[in-house]
Amino acid sequence: MMETLHHWFDLLLHADKFLPMLISEYQGWIYLIFFIIIFCETGLVITPFLPGDSLLFAAGTIASSQGTLNIYTLMALIFAAAFSGDNSNYFIGRFLGPKILGLRFFRKDYLEKTHNFYEKYGGTTLIIARFTPIIRTFAPFVAGIGTMKYSWFLTFSIIGNLLWINVCLWAGYLLGTNEFVKTHFTLVTLMIIVVSLLPAIFQALKGLFNSQRS
C-alpha cells in the first residue's frame, strides 16, 4: 500500500517527466489513460489519491511545449471522464443511502441534515469541491447520499467541471513554455496542491472557530 502511494505521489510531483515517457510508450492510448485516471479519481471513493489538478496542469504544459498532446482533445476527453465520474459517484451514493439507513449506528437525522445542506448549498459546494483534491472525490458521493435534486447536481457538475478543466489545462498550456515553470515544475506542482487545499483548510478552521465560540 505504501509503495503504491509513494508511486502516485512521485507521479504527482514529477508528472512533467513521467508523462512524456508514457506518451512515448503508449502513443494515442495516452488519452485513454487520462480518461481512466480522471474517472477513477472523480468517480470512485476508494481512489481519491490519484492525481487531478497536477495531471491536468502537466498535460497542458506538454500540449504547449512539446505538441504531443492536443489541448482540445484533452478538454473534451477529461470533461467526459470527470462528468461521468461525478454521475457514477452520485448514483452510487444515492443507491447506498437506503442501505446506510439500515445500519444501527447510523443516525437518520444526519442524513436529513445532509439532504438539507445539499439542497441549500450543494451547488456552491460541488463547484468549490471540484478544485479541492480528495474532497472532489467525496462530494458527489455525499450529494447522492443526501439525495440532492439530480437536476441541480447535473447543472453544477457541468459548471464545476468546465471551470476546473479550463483553469488547470489552460494554466499549464499558457505557462508551458515558461522557463521558471519548466525548471521548477515540482515546486509549481506543490504550490498548486497547497492553493487547491486552501478552501478546505479555511472551512475546517472556520468550523473549529465557530464550535469554540458556541
Present the secondary structure layout:
Blueprint: H1 2-13, H2 15-26, H3 30-43, H4 53-65, H5 71-101, H6 108-130, H7 135-145, H8 150-175, H9 179-183, H10 185-213
Helix pairs in contact: 1-2, 2-4, 3-5, 4-8, 5-7, 5-8, 6-7, 6-8
Show unreliable segments.
none
* Shape, principal axes of CA atoms: globular
Report the biggest beta sheet as strand number plus sense, adding barrel if it closes.
none
Helices and strands, in order, run as HHHHHHHHHH
Cα gyration radius (Å): 18 Å
Helix content: over 70%
Mean pLDDT: 78
- Which structural class best describes the helix and strand composition? mainly alpha
Number of helices: 10
| Amino- and carboxy-terminal Cα gap | 41 Å
Task: Characterise this structure.
With 214 residues, this protein is an all-alpha fold. Helices cover 82% and strands 0% of the residues. It is globular and about 50 Å long. The N and C termini lie far apart (41 Å). The model has no long low-confidence stretch (mean pLDDT 78).
